[in-house]
Amino acid sequence: xxxxxxxxxxxxxxxxxxxxxxxxxxxxxxxxxxxxxxxxxxxxxxxxxxxxxxxxxxxxxxxxxxxxxxxxxxxxxxxxxxxxxxxxxxxxxxxxxxxxxxxxxxxxxxxxxxxxxxxxxxxxxxxxxxxxxxxxxxxxxxxxxxxxxxxxxxxxxxxxxxxxxxxxxxxxxxxxxxxxxxxxxxxxxxxxxxxxxxxxxxxxxxxxxxxxxxxxxxxxxxxxxxxxxxxxxxxxxxxxxxxxxxxxxxxxxxxxxxxxxxxxxxxxxxxxxxxxxxxxxxxxxxxxxxxxxxxxxxxxxxxxxxxxxxxxxxxxxxxxxxxxxxxxxxxxxxxxxxxxxxxxxxxxxxxxxxxxxxxxxxxxxxxxxxxxxxxxxxxxxxxxxxxxxxxxxxxxxxxxxxxxxxxxxxxxxxxxxxxxxxxxxxxxxxxxxxxxxxxxxxxxxxxxxxxxxxxxxxxxxxxxxxxxxxxxxxxxxxxxxxxxxxxxxxxxxxxxxxxxxxxxxxxxxxxxxxxxxxxxxxxxxxxxxxxxxxxxxxxx
Length: 540
Description:
It is globular, with a radius of gyration of 24 Å. The chain is of the alpha+beta class. It contains 25 helices and nine strands. The termini are far apart. The chain has helices at 25-31, 34-37, 59-77, 82-94, 104-113, 124-141, 151-155, 161-164, 172-181, 184-195, 212-231, 247-252, 260-273, 282-287, 311-329, 332-350, 359-367, 380-388, 392-395, 399-409, 426-435, 437-447, 471-483, 491-501, 522-525; strands at 11-15, 19-23, 289-296, 299-307, 416-424, 456-464, 504-506, 512-513, 529-537. Helix 9 packs antiparallel against helix 11. Strand 7 (504-506) and strand 8 (512-513) form a beta hairpin.
């Protein structure tokens, strides 16, 4: 029997949130690579730091934090061997390697720009009013009792993540996988780790009697495993290797409502922003982690969740995550700054001569990452350099966009004139929209194409506590979908996807989602959503 090298730390990095974070030899080698150091110049919260000035943390320390948290989760679950832990740690460490400058602020631009460039661009006021109106109408059109004839609505109904979220080509997780697969430096570090025994199997010793090509092939297999974990690829078929036993559980530790990524960024964002929103008792949560193999029909998977006595802590975690988004991420000024940035970058991508990287350009510099330094320089500094290079007359920048440029250069947001903040379930949301003069004005303005006649920008944001619905409604939606579509969906497969994607409660009986657990507040709060409608002064 071959021995797998134990997790032994050869270096430590001091972190504000977790204290000393240990690095194994293979992790220490990757941490020193320029492609990983690049994350030090990628803000964790993008331009949120302009509103919460303490929020200066970056994707580098968050990535190390996720590596630490996912390992702690694995240790508390008491199922994983050293090779599986090392794989999980690498997936956590590398999960944000392909993030764009300013994190999600710029990521949204690349997802929009994919295939949308060179088209006729609306004015910023038209564009943002159209988005606002469309989002509001989406809420007003949702009804609780759909008939089979409502095919258009059925097509848009909540379905499991595996079916709904087909990873876009320029989603940061897809870009991360692209970076990893095109990095010989990372593969070489994994090859060195294989040779030292980090990935030995019970019946296979990789430290002897293996050719160089066999080791390289196995390293590529490990790279594929890491990318599948990072992308949450539910269709990934695990083949031979050192980690086949609990791969579905490993995926949940990095891709579910209760994953290491969310745990770290909630604690980290609360620590650095100065806001307490997002904090929760992580110790109790860890102590109550549990995993269990579960079968529905012919489908089988390991489900990770909390014990029944951990339901209260899980509720706290979900509520504070909701508050972290509504109070910090969707703060009245961070929201408008993010939109200003998006519109400016879209304009720069369409402008000849600015050479702001377009989507396909990003793929090219990633492929060439080890031949030149362009991708290493694709950081927050890249954006600000391009922003400061805009000249209104020389570049033909429209007045409304140049207003955004000037505000961003001055580290300012637009001043808010008024806002309408409302929290409630779907019925109460619809009632509020119907009776609000503010919402009525928005919908009428959009119908009249009157956006450019107002010196104002309108924004709408909405945040739910969870994207899942109770099992009864899930089943009803599922049956309704199958009754109106020729291609039928497999309930067993989708039910397992639902359990893997959500926050599960695991007792003696079959696992259920938190929103289905008798002792959880989420049974009543699952469809609570905060609506945030805002009007900003637009001083052209």
